[in-house]
Amino acid sequence: MMMNSMKSQFNVTKGTCIDGKWHKNRYLIEKELGYGANGVVYLARLKGTLVALKMSDNGLSVTSEVNVLKSFSKVQGSTLGPSLLDVDDWKTSQGKTYSFYVMEYIHGPDLLKFIESNGSSWTIVLILQLLNDLDQLHRAGWVFGDLKPENLIVTGPPPKIRCIDVGGTTMKGRAIKEFTEFYDRGYWGLGSRKADPAYDLFATAMIFINCAYPSRFNKDSGGLDQLRGRVKQSKLLQPYEQVIVGALKGRYQSALEMKRALLDEMSALQTKKNTKTVTRNAKAANQSAPIRSRSRQHKKSKGGFKETVMLILVISCLYFFYIYGQLV
Amino acid sequence: MKTGTLKQILLITDGCSNQGEDPIAMAALAKEQGISVNVIGVMENDVIDDQGLKEIEGIAMSGGGVSQVVYAKQLSQTVQMVTRKAMTQTLQGVVNRELTQILGNKQTTIEDLPPDQRGEVMEVVDELGETVEVEVLILIDTSASMKHKLPTVKEALFDLSLSLNARSGQNRFSLFVFPGKKNDVEKMLDWTPKLESLTSIFSKLSTGGITPTGPAIREALTYFNKKRSLRNLLSRDDDEFYEESI
């Protein structure tokens, strides 16, 4: 068996009809969305609704991913992964059978693109959102595994982080199924590949670092020192150094714990900023004084206009009475 | 279901064999003994020619394993992925055989089941993949052109150890290089659960002009057998061999 990428392996183009063998649904292919080691994802239409359809010649990797998606749906309130709509087989006109599954179409730019076009102030917001979702997943006994920006899509509005590839999701305590080196704890020599919540938190910290270094970087000396150095050099990351390094070291046992630490760091940062702003305001007080007096003058002139009108009215009233008296 | 031991040969090479038996035939021989053969072709600036590529694919196909050709820098990721993939493939073969037994004489594979039941069977495969005992015999081509790729190979092997040792099942690794100083193949590391014990192994390599891939595979097989007889002495009767794969 030769492993290669699945690009254009299936003869599926725009307008191809995919008929399900078991559930008899008909999907109309719109275009290819992407491909990876485990299959090709297409945008398709089912009775007018847009859906994402993933097809693979390895039926078992499909089954494996479907199992994960099913377990996702059991995690209450979690919206991290796409919801599963259908699982089926497709028999081509050449007589070959491919397995596929259909999921909700999650539309939007990936994490790094979103931050690039909407500003880096979104970074921390989306990281916090991600931690929240991870916490729910971890509570249900799963670890995401292959967390990386390419797998994270920001939908909206309002912007919400979602994950489109759940192939690496692993039961807690087992060996991580799939990973990408840059986000992998083992690659950096900072821990094992056993699935525990701290594995995902390491990846989250690396995603955070990736936001500041969109083109990533190579491992040189490896280990914590190189990563810590990168965090210190970045304006975006430097305020959160303690939390990021903590996550890299595996200090946090749960996503919630890391989220709280980030929030604490943020509020500490805010108080610092506020004290700075207060002193700045005091200095600026003298400068703003003339502006305020000018506006008072403005108010006075407005009042003067009203007075004039009143005066004219009163006088014309008296004049009217006077004329009336003269006439009578 | 009994969980026996998964046996794999992992061959890392960068081209064609030029001495001795046909490696594709030797891989078929391995398969007959319940050992699957995976091949990774390593490129750097050079590209593996058609003949080499055919041989790499051929060995994996007749050895019931997985093959992949990669650039040296992707080696770590590939080695662990190929090994995992081959494990799953073999386990699926076992499960398929069981299914045929359970569901009667008709040939049944997991793919023939309706999607819902398929999921349950896949759970079993996943579970087995986590707990099964694995033996990997690593066979490294150390012919001249491989010399400067060897540090990368070593790194990739550490990475493999990291991946497999994260499972709850037992692992055993051994490492052989070919050509050896005197024989076709030379043992560098005997069966051990820790590949990390491999430290300065690559420094004592001599690099020559010949690439006896076929003989290397044939000889590697005997090390599995030796071990098996040893273990039989210890009266381990759960030593079931998977002789079938997809």
From TrEMBL, chain A:
Composition skew (Polar residues), residue ranges: 279-290
Keywords: ATP-binding, Kinase, Membrane, Nucleotide-binding, Serine/threonine-protein kinase, Transferase, Transmembrane, Transmembrane helix
Domain Protein kinase residue range list: 27-328
InterPro entries per record: Kinase-like_dom_sf (IPR011009), Prot_kinase_dom (IPR000719), Protein_kinase_ATP_BS (IPR017441)
Transmembrane domains' residue ranges: 304-324
Region (Disordered): 279-300
Binding positions (ATP): 54
CC per GO annotation: cytoplasm
UniProt key word ATP-binding: yes
Domain of life: Bacteria
Any GO MF annotation of the entry: protein serine/threonine kinase activity
DNA repair found in the keyword field: no
Protein name from the UniProt record: Serine/threonine protein kinase
Organism the protein comes from: Cytobacillus horneckiae
TrEMBL record, chain B:
Stretches of the chain forming a coiled coil according to its record: none
Every VWFA domain range: 1-91, 135-246
UniProt-listed Pfam families: VWA, VWA_2
Superkingdom to which the source organism belongs: Bacteria
Family annotation (InterPro entries): VWF_A (IPR002035), vWFA_dom_sf (IPR036465)
Matches recorded under Gene3D superfamilies: von Willebrand factor, type A domain
Protein name as catalogued: VWFA domain-containing protein
Organism, scientific name: Cytobacillus horneckiae
Lineage: Bacteria, Bacillati, Bacillota, Bacilli, Bacillales
